[in-house]
Every structure is written in C-alpha cells, then in structure tokens.
C-alpha cells in the first residue's frame, strides 16, 4: 500500500474525501445472494471510490497554503507580540491588526460565515455592522438599552440583537424588522444557517428555536437548569450545546423536549464553550478554573488545562486552533485536543480590559475579540482555512451572488426535524423491528390527526315542545287567551302524566328508562 | 522567525472585467460542506416535487378518423411518419411534427386490422377483414403531393379520396394482422392461418399452421429476421422459423394474448400483452416461464410496444389507459389517461424514444411524451447538468418514504382506482386462501410451490 502511495501521492489524501468505509460495505455485499443487487451495489461503490479519488486529485487546484509561524533558534512563538509580528507581514495583513476604543463595552462580536462582515454589540446599547476588511460601515445603532448578544442571520443583510427584554431583528441599514416577543431576556443567540433557525437562551432557561424563513417558533424547551448564558452550536450536526450553572452541558435538538445528552463537565458553573469545525471536539471552561477538551464521539474528556482566571470565552478556528479569553488575556493553543500542550501557540494582552467574546475569523488568519473597552483584531498565523469554497462561503461575494445564494439556501433549507446527533442517518434504513416501526407510524398518525374532543352535550329532552317554544318566544308581559290556553294545556299534560305514573309505576318515562332500573321522577 | 499569513488580493479572486465569468474557487473538503446528506435529500425532495409539477405528458390529439383507430405503424427510418387504420376501412398517414393528416384514403371495405411499414421508401401495407392486403404508396398519387427543395416529398392533401393501391392481394378469409420482413420483399399475414407472401406473387408462398382455429396477430422479429411470433385465439403463442418452415415453439398461456412486441435490442426477448391484465416478457430460448411480468392494468392489455432502446415498454389497455413500464421492472412507472380517451387498441413508441402514441376507440390518435415531465427542445449545458444531477439524487433517495410517495402518486380515474383496489383485494384473498390451504394440508400431500412467473404458462410444445 505504501508502495502504491509513493507512486500515486493522491491515494494518501483519498480517505479524507471518502464517505464511509467502502471495504466494509463490500464485505457485507459479498454475503448477498441476489446477484443483480450485488452488481448494482458494487458498481455504486466503485462510483463512490472514483468520486473520492477525483476529489482528492482536485486538491492540486487549491491555490493557497495555510499560514504558519516557524521559530528559529531559541525563539518561542508565544513570545511573539502583535507589534513585532506587524513588522514582518504585508501591509494588507497589518491592516487587520487593529483596536477600536469604544465606550459602550463590553462587546459581543460576530463574523459572517464568509468572514467578511463584523457585527459588534456593546452592553450599553451600541450596535454596529460593517465590512471590517474594506472598512465600510453598514449601520451603527445606539439602542439605549442593554445589548447582551448579537448574531448575523444567514447573510450580512440581517442580524439579530438580544436586547434588554426581547430579541430584535435589524436589516443592514439598521432598520428594525422584527421584534421577537417570544424570546424574553435572552443572553445568548445562535443561528443555524442551513436550517434557518435562530436559537436563543436566556435568564428564563428556555431554549427557543425560531425559523427565520417562515417566522414560526419551531420549538421551545425548558432546560430546568436555571439561567443560561453559554450556548454554542455543533457546526456538523446542528445540535445546540448549553452550558449550565451546575457544571453540566446539555445537548439539544428541536425535536426532543429533553436533552439528548447531559454531560457533567465542571464542578462550577460553565463560563464558555466552543466546538471544533468537524464537530468531534468540544472545549469547555468553568468557573472552577479548568479548561477541558472533550471528544464528542464518546463524550469523554481528552485533555485538561488550567486557566489562571476563569476563561470568559473560547473559540476554535477552522484549522483547529483554540483561543481562550481570560481576564485581559487571549491565549491561542495549537493542537490542544489530541496532545497535551505545555505552552500556548500565541499570547496577547489587552491591558486593562477584560475580554468578553473571542472569535476566529473564517478563512482568515485573524482572531477578533470584544472586550470591555472596545473590539480588537489580532493576527494568528495558521488559524484560517486557506481555501474557501465559493459556493459555500465566498469572501469575495458580489451582490448578485449573495442574492442567488440566498435563494438557493432557502430552497435547500433543511427541515428542523432532520436535526439528529448522527447526520448520516438521513436516507438510511430504519432497522428497528416492525412492531416498533408500526407503533411509531401509529403515533405519528395520531399526532397528525388529533381526535376532536367531543363534549358531551346535555340535551334536555321534552323541553322543546311546540307549545313551550311558543311560550318562550312570545313576549313575557302579554297575557292573551292563547297563552292562557297553552299554559293550561301544559299543566293538564303534566298532571295526566303524573297520574298515569302513579297508577302504573313500572311504566318507563322514555324508551331507554327501562334499562336504568331506577325510578325516575316526573 | 518565519511568518506566513493568509493574505488574499481581491484582484486574484474576482473577475477583472464585467464580461468575464466570476471566479469561483472550489474546495471539496467535506468539513466545509456540512449536512451533505440532509441537503442532498432536500434537493431530491424538491426535484421530485418539481418533476410531478411539470408532469404534463399530453402533447396533442391527431383527429381525423371517424371510427376507432385499431392499428398503427411507425416507419423504421422516418421519425415523422405514422400510419393508422380505422374501423371503417380508413387509412391515414400523419405528420407527427405538424400533427396533421398528410394522406388519407378509404382503403378497405371493412375494418383495417393491421398496417405495417417497411424500409423501402414510404410505402406501407394494410390488411383488413375484407380479405384483402394492399400496398400503398402515398407519394405516388401525384396530384396529392408537392416536391419541395429537399429530397423528401411533402404531402399536402388531407381529403379522404379514393386512391389506388400499388398492389392488392386477396386471401381466403379475413386477415387479422400483418407484419413485414425487415429487409426482404416478404410479409406475413394472420387469419385462419399464417400466410407468407412475396410482393411479386398473388398467392401466398408459404402457409404455416399448427392446429389453431384463428391467429390474432403476427410479428416479424426485426433483428433475427426469419423468426415470426404469432398469437392464437386458443391462448397460444407460436414461434415459427422461416428458414425451416417449421414451428419452433408453441406456448399455451392461461388466457389469450392480444399483441406481441419483439425487443429491438435483445432479439430473443419479446413481450406478450395478455387478456389477464398482465404483460408477460419471454425469452424465446426458454419459454417454460415468463422472464418478467408487467402488472398494473386493470383490464385486458390490447397492445404493446418496445421503445427503440429496448429499455421501456408502452402498453394500451381495455381500461382506457396507457401505461409505461421499465422493461426490467414489474410495475408501471407512469399511467396516461384523459377524459375522452376510450379503449386503447394500439400503442407505439416513437423511434426517437421521446414520445408514445395511442390509438383508441374514440377515433383519435394521441401523442404523449414518453417521460411525462421531460422538457422538450434544446437544453443548455448547465440545465442539462442540473437535470442529470437531480435525476441522480432522485435515484439515490428513491426508497425514502416521502420521496417514494410523491414520485409514485398519480391521480387516476375513479374507475381505475376502484378497480385496482378491488383487484388487489381479490388477489390478496386468493393468496390468503392458498396459504390457508397449505397450512392445513399434510406435509406429504403438500404440492410444491409454483413460482409466480411459471403460473401463467399452461403448457409448452416444441
């Protein structure tokens, strides 16, 4: 195999592009008796293999290479300051290192998926959206009330702001589009771009999903663990992770009212959480001063680090760097998940200003963070994915392309009920026994066709004779001969019935009374 | 310290002039494309919905026949060409692209029971209950066509005038079907027996018989050109080989076979449209069982034809529907019907594999798309690529219940729906009964199970 790989270096990359294990599939196929099916599956497997090989060989077309820091001699990368780095980089990169001194902090920040646009929200009500690379301001708002979090929606035309009481949606000109009154006292916002779901969690401890394409509140789940201000999404399967005050992390999907998984991660409240790009690793930080790294495939800790002061924010870059904001410090770790690192990759100090929110910029070697006195942007070589896919997230997107992508992503919107822990489940055969499947089918049918609650009506029999109706309808205060006659007749009828009943107590009053066994009063 | 930082220049990643195409860098790394399967599924779902939305198969009705259309033939070389024969002896030649009659005549004194074309020119044969077979040449009636600049002749007349046939052959009795040899000047007719005729002889050159009272249809194999298949009213299918003048096989089915079609790509395969609502696919080398059974019609299948690729089959039924089958599958992939279409007696697949034709009792020939939602005409590269991609996705997720439900859903006439339901109840009841009988039979008395594909075969003679 290695000989083969030497001859054809593409073979070494193929596993990255392979979907599933073809050898395993072929093993199970060989047991099949149906030759036709066998042939079909084998042909299909060959197609998959070819596709993976072709995708791997297309790597040659990737133009960019990832950034790096390479120390020489006794140099240490963590000693490199931004000021000295600035001297060694080109001018456009140097422009990416900046600090904005703003008075309304601490600031929450958010980058769009293509890394082009930045949204900042100061606690005291200052919100601004801009193309941070070109320096074009889209809008700046002074909301005059608390802003707890900000989040871009599917593209740079819309963003959500968690304000004092409700969540608001603004467009890029700063116009208020919606006020989401269902979301009360929200601390943390997140957006699932492929599902068009805005997820919020706040002081009430409710996790709510709002579909931003249809406007429906898809689901709301009560976490029962009190106030929550740590939330992050798993980018690979759209599961929301909530960090709670008792040190647990709960995993949620909109389809289950109870958490899918509960993990006891820390001994104190959880302060920050981040999940890697591939969705396999999670980093959590707690007030107990621990920074723990977890494997989400088996929910077990991989590494454990300490932070001098509890970390306030975490972020994982596209290439797996972990940024930790604690106090006025930001430290960046390289490969912290698989091997225990002894020293950070880079360090940065924002003097006198506690870090609030760190976030790596997609497709850039830049880390942005909001702190008490503004926002800063520092360069971290090797953090961003060098080669973007223009059909997924394009930093150089034109207006037309943005509009087209918006339409396409709406057409391809994944329904919220497809959110599961295992993303490969779609289209797979349900191998549960037929009894369980039938039961599920029945339940689904019952849920879709709820039985109308039929109220038992009390029908007063015999209360609606024509004479009584006439009496009811005619004016009460007029007494004429007809009315007197009617009243007399009713009275006579009553008496006669009573008499008949007295003479023959066994006679039933109505046809059904013979079954009651009880004697009915007249 | 060596430093490298990502720094992209806008010039390199954007187009230079507005006439250029946009630069779209791709990276196929799966982590950059999350929810791959879920998105593909959504696309497949959209594609299948769009497909059903655009499923408008009816192209047009060719009206002109006063009586029902009971036989049709296509030309092996000319796409545009269709001949139909009516119940009143009317013969019509149609231009399919213009959807109009090019040439018409009252060719027979009784119902036209068969028409057949052959490679040479635009002549065709017709046979009738009036005991005659006639060869017609529409281009020969000089007053009825004008020659255009192109080499082919354009026919313009539409009046049903009396025209003279090129040749007339008179038989002993009524003819029920006709089929022309692929290349030779030989044709076969069916009636009380199978007659093989030569164009130049007034009498049949050969008569084939195997103890049958009436032969319904006869069909030349167009690839193995000496093989003839015929169906008899005594529920038989008989194959003859002209080289030996001997019958090859005689197959007796449970019910009568109405029509036969040879697979144009696999010369040994043919399908037989049966009175028992099914179409049976046979391999002429091993006829002891059906190779495939095409079910779904709820009444007798009157006519059947293969697509020129041999992959698709179109059938016309006494239940007033046309059904399209994948030749290798057991159930129809589509059903065509209209309010006004009556019993379908003849169907054809056109030679470009894109359309099907149906001739019915109501006197119309109808032109349908072979794939109901296919867009006709020229498609540019991107559109084609998109359609191919959607097709692949639909195939990939075909078994997912939601997608299967949408793609299989058809609005059918109430009569068909109730009949289908009733039929399935009856079949199931029969199955249950059979199973119950088996359950309560001693194992030593238990007969062996007969495979479903062997059941229709009553007997075979060689």
UniProtKB/TrEMBL annotation, chain A:
Pfam families, per database record: BING4CT (PF08149), WD40 (PF00400)
Keywords, alphabetical: Nucleus, Repeat, rRNA processing, WD repeat
BING4 C-terminal domain location: 344-423
Origin superkingdom: Eukaryota
Subcellular location: Nucleus, Nucleolus
Region (Disordered): 458-477, 496-522
Annotated WD repeat ranges: 263-304
GO biological process: maturation of SSU-rRNA from tricistronic rRNA transcript (SSU-rRNA, 5.8S rRNA, LSU-rRNA)
Annotated Basic residues bias: 459-475
PROSITE patterns: WD_REPEATS_1, WD_REPEATS_2, WD_REPEATS_REGION
InterPro entries: BING4_C_dom, WD40/YVTN_repeat-like_dom_sf, WD40_repeat_CS, WD40_repeat_dom_sf, WD40_rpt, WDR46/Utp7
A GO term from the CC aspect: 90S preribosome
Task of the protein: Involved in nucleolar processing of pre-18S ribosomal RNA.
Protein name: U three protein 7
Native source species: Dissophora globulifera
Gene: UTP7
From TrEMBL, chain B:
Pfam families, sorted: Sof1 (PF04158), WD40 (PF00400)
Chain positions covered by the region annotation Disordered: 1-22
Domain spans labelled Sof1-like protein: 370-457
Cell location: Nucleus, Nucleolus
WD repeats: 62-104, 105-137, 294-335, 337-378
InterPro entries per UniProt: Sof1, WD40/YVTN_repeat-like_dom_sf, WD40_PAC1, WD40_repeat_dom_sf, WD40_rpt, WD_repeat_DCAF13/WDSOF1
Residue ranges with Basic and acidic residues bias: 9-22
Entries under PROSITE patterns matching the protein: WD_REPEATS_2, WD_REPEATS_REGION
Chief place where the protein resides: nucleus
Gene Ontology CC terms: small-subunit processome
Gene Ontology biological process: maturation of SSU-rRNA from tricistronic rRNA transcript (SSU-rRNA, 5.8S rRNA, LSU-rRNA)
Record's keyword terms, sorted: Nucleus, Repeat, Ribonucleoprotein, WD repeat
Protein family: Belongs to the WD repeat DCAF13/WDSOF1 family.
UniProt-recorded name of the protein: rRNA-processing protein sof1
Organism: Dissophora globulifera
Gene behind the chain: SOF1
């Amino acid at each position: 195999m290695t000989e083969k790989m030497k001859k054809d270096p593409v073979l070494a990359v193929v596993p990255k592009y392979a979907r599933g294990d073809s050898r395993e599939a072929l093993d199970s196929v060989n047991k099949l008796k149906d030759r036709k099916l066998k042939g079909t599956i084998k042909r299909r497997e060959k197609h998959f293999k070819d596709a993976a090989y072709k995708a791997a060989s297309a790597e040659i077309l990737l133009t960019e290479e990832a950034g790096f820091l390479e120390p020489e001699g006794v140099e240490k990368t963590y000693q490199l300051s931004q000021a000295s780095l600035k001297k060694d980089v080109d001018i456009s990169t140097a422009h990416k290192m900046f600090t904005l001194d703003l008075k309304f902090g601490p600031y929450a920040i958010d980058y769009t998926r293509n890394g082009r646009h930045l949204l900042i929200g100061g606690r005291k009500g200052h919100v601004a959206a801009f193309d941070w690379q070109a320096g074009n301001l889209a809008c700046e708002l002074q909301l005059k009330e608390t802003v707890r979090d900000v989040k871009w929606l599917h593209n740079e035309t819309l963003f959500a702001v968690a304000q004092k009481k409700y969540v608001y949606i603004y467009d890029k000109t700063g116009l208020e589009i919606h006020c989401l009154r269902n979301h009360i006292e929200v601390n943390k916002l997140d957006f699932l771009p492929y599902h068009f779901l805005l997820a919020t969690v706040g002081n009430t401890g409710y996790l709510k999903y709002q579909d931003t394409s249809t406007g429906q509140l898809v689901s709301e789940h009560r976490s029962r663990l009190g106030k929550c201000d740590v939330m992050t999404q798993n980018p690979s399967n759209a599961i929301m992770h909530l960090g709670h005050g008792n040190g647990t992390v709960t995993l949620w999907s909109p389809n289950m009212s109870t958490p899918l998984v509960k993990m006891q991660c820390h001994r104190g409240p959880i302060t920050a959480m981040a999940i890697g790009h591939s969705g396999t690793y999670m980093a959590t930080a707690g007030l107990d001063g621990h920074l723990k790294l977890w494997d989400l495939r088996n929910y077990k800790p991989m590494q454990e680090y300490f932070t001098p002061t509890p970390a306030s924010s975490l972020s994982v870059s596209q290439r797996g760097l972990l940024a930790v904001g604690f106090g006025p410090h930001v430290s960046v770790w390289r490969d912290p998940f698989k091997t225990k690192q002894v020293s950070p990759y880079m360090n940065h100090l924002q003097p006198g200003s506690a870090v609030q929110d760190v976030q790596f910029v997609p497709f850039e070697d830049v880390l942005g963070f909001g702190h008490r006195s503004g926002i800063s942007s520092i360069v971290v070589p090797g953090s961003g994915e060098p080669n973007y896919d223009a059909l997924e997230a394009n930093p150089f997107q034109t207006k037309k392309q943005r509009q087209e992508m918006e339409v396409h992503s709406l057409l391809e919107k994944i329904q919220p009920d497809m959110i599961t822990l295992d993303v490969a489940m779609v289209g797979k055969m349900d191998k549960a026994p037929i009894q369980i499947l039938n039961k599920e089918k029945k339940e689904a049918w019952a849920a879709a066709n709820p039985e109308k609650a039929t109220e038992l009506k009390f029908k007063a029999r015999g209360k609606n004779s024509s004479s009584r109706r006439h009496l009811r309808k005619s004016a009460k205060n007029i007494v004429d001969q007809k009315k007197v006659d009617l009243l007399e007749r009713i009275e006579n009828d009553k008496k006669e019935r009573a008499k008949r009943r007295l003479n023959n107590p066994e006679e039933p009053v109505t046809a059904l009374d013979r079954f009651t066994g009880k004697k009915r009063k007249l | 310290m060596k430093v490298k930082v990502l720094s992209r220049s806008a010039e390199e990643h954007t187009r230079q002039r507005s006439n250029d195409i946009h630069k779209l860098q791709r990276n196929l790394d799966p982590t950059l494309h999350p929810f791959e399967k879920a998105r593909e599924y959504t696309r497949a779902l959209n594609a299948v919905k769009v497909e059903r939305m655009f499923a408008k198969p009816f192209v047009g009705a060719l009206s002109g026949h006063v009586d029902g259309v009971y036989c049709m033939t296509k030309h092996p070389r000319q796409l545009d060409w269709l001949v139909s024969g009516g119940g009143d002896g009317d013969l019509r030649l149609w231009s399919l692209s213009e959807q109009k009659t090019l040439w018409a005549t009252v060719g027979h004194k009784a119902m036209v029971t068969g028409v057949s074309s052959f490679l040479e020119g635009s002549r065709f044969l017709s046979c009738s209950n009036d005991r005659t077979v006639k060869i017609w040449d529409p281009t020969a009636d000089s007053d009825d066509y004008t020659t255009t600049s192109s080499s082919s002749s354009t026919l313009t007349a539409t009046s049903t005038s009396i025209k003279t046939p090129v040749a007339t052959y008179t038989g002993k009795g009524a003819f029920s079907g006709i089929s022309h040899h692929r290349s030779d000047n030989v044709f076969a007719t069916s009636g009380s027996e199978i007659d093989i005729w030569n164009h130049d002889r007034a009498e049949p050159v050969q008569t084939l018989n195997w103890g049958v009272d009436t032969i319904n249809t006869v069909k030349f194999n167009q690839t193995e050109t000496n093989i003839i298949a015929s169906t008899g009213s005594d529920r038989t299918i008989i194959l003859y080989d002209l080289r030996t003048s001997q019958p090859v096989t005689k197959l007796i089915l449970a019910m009568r076979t109405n029509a036969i079609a040879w697979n144009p790509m696999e010369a040994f395969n043919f399908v037989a449209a049966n009175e028992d609502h099914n179409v049976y696919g046979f391999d002429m080398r091993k006829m002891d069982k059906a190779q495939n059974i095409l079910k779904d019609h709820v009444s007798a299948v009157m006519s059947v034809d293969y697509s020129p690729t041999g992959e698709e089959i179109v059938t016309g039924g006494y239940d007033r529907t046309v059904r399209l089958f994948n030749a290798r599958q057991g159930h129809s992939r589509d059903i065509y019907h209209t309010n006004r279409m009556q019993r379908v007696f003849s169907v054809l697949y056109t030679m470009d594999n894109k359309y099907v034709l149906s001739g019915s009792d109501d006197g119309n020939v109808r032109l349908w798309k072979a794939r109901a939602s296919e867009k006709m005409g020229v498609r540019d590269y991107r559109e084609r690529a998109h359609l191919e991609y959607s097709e692949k996705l639909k195939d990939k997720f075909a078994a997912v219940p939601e997608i299967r439900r949408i793609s299989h859903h058809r609005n059918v006439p109430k009569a068909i729906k109730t009949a289908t339901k009733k039929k399935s109840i009856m079949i199931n009841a029969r199955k249950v009964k059979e199973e119950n009988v088996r359950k309560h039979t001693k194992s030593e008395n238990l007969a062996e199970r007969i495979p479903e594909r062997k059941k229709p075969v009553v007997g075979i003679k060689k």
